[in-house]
């Protein structure tokens, strides 16, 4: 069963919110709206870390699942319902919305996106579209490939890690260096998958992309799980002195903002430490990232991630901006139209995400929980 003694982790919630915002703004590819502006090219640098931001989602998921369920054998039926209510209702709503938009487009223009086929629709509704196999296909709502991977991590990877972690029993003194070493071996392996990214885009091989993303998901999820194991072994005490933590935060921020040579290695080195520090009450990271505005953004993160592409798709047509879906670049256009498009995207995505989270996601989760209690 889920422990009722688990405290909230607001700093990790904030990290999730910042990562979702990074993915959303990165998908606008706003630098292409202003092709002659060096400032726009420079300003886009922090938002070019889309893939690494998704890695952070996977790491945080692994951490949270161990944190919530890893201490006692969970009730697997309740676990499955909790995971289902966490991701599927909003995902399903966004997928149905995409299909409705496609239906309207067909009614008005007699054209329909190539992705709209019966096998693709079934795979997407079952949330298996990005699992390796004959059913592999593109997500109708393109960012949700990672939710498909996440579903597999919930079903296939977490139970395996849970049972592997029950045995053998190793003392905390021995297990801590083993855990740290394993975490950084996984980060080193992750770098291999990132080096394949450019070739994968060139190859346009959907099944290769699927395997690459699956590997990233398993490595990152396992890393997050082990970071939580490490934190519990150390009883959530600081892992590094405050001076080193400050240096870590400065280096991490500099790598994200300016992307210097070797920035990926800096992020791979520091991301596990950042996630660990965010779980420690007394850490500077926790204090900096626990502000109410950042936590609010973190609460909206899943809705931001799921709804930003449909919103961008509609606004791109209203503003006559071509190519809202990656990796196609947005065509250059009038600067004021570009600014209006960006501000409209930001405002409408946040509004839709707020409504989705507070008036759909949370009520549906509560309704599923009540229904489960009535059946018990």
Q: Can you put this structure into words, describing what you see?
A:
This protein is mostly helical and 376 residues long. It has one domain. It is built from 14 helices and no strands. Helix 3 (50-69) packs across helix 9 and helix 4 (76-109) runs parallel beside helix 13 (292-318). The longest helix has 41 residues, at 335-375. It is globular.
In short:
The protein is an all-alpha fold and about 375 residues long.
Report the total helices.
14
Major beta sheet summary: none
Low-confidence stretches: 1-5
- Total number of strands: 0
What key attributes describe this structure?
14 helices, 376 residues, mainly alpha
Topology:
Layout: H1 10-28, H2 38-43, H3 50-69, H4 76-109, H5 118-125, H6 145-166, H7 172-195, H8 197-203, H9 206-233, H10 242-258, H11 263-278, H12 284-288, H13 292-318, H14 335-375
Helix pairs in contact: 1-3, 1-13, 3-6, 3-9, 4-6, 4-13, 4-14, 6-9, 7-9, 7-11, 10-11, 13-14
């Amino acid at each position: 069963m889920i422990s009722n003694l688990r405290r909230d982790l607001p700093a990790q919630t904030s990290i999730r919110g910042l990562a979702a915002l990074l993915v959303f703004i990165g998908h606008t590819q706003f630098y292409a709206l202003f092709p002659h502006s060096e400032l726009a090219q420079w300003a886009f640098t922090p938002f070019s870390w889309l893939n690494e931001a998704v890695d952070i989602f996977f790491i945080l998921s692994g951490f949270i699942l161990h944190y919530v369920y890893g201490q006692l054998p969970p009730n697997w039926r309740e676990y499955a319902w909790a995971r289902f209510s966490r991701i599927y209702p909003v995902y399903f709503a966004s997928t149905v919305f995409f299909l409705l938009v496609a239906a309207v487009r067909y009614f008005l223009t007699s054209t329909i996106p190539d992705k709209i086929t019966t096998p693709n629709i079934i795979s997407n509704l079952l949330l298996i579209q990005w699992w390796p196999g004959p059913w592999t296909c593109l997500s109708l709502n393109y960012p949700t490939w990672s939710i498909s991977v996440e579903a597999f991590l919930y079903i296939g990877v977490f139970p395996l890690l849970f049972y592997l972690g029950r045995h053998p029993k190793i003392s905390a003194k021995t297990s801590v260096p083993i855990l740290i070493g394993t975490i950084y071996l996984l980060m080193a392996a992750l770098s291999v998958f990132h080096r394949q990214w450019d070739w994968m885009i060139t190859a346009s091989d959907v099944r290769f992309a699927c395997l690459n993303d699956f590997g990233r998901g398993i490595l990152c999820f396992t890393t997050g799980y082990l970071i939580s194991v490490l934190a519990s072994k150390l009883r959530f005490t600081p892992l590094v002195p405050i001076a080193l933590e400050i240096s870590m935060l400065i280096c991490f921020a500099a790598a994200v903002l300016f992307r210097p040579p070797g920035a990926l290695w800096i992020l791979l080195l520091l991301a596990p430490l950042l996630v660990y520090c965010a779980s420690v009450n007394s850490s500077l990271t926790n204090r900096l990232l626990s502000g109410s505005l950042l936590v609010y953004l973190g609460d909206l993160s899943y809705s931001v991630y799921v709804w930003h592409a449909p919103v961008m798709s509609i606004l791109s047509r209203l503003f006559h901006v071509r190519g809202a879906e990656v990796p196609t670049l947005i065509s250059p256009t009038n600067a004021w139209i570009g600014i209006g498009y960006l501000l409209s995207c930001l405002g409408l995505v946040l509004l839709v995400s707020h409504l989705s989270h507070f008036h759909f996601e949370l009520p549906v989760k509560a309704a599923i929980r009540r229904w489960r209690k009535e059946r018990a």
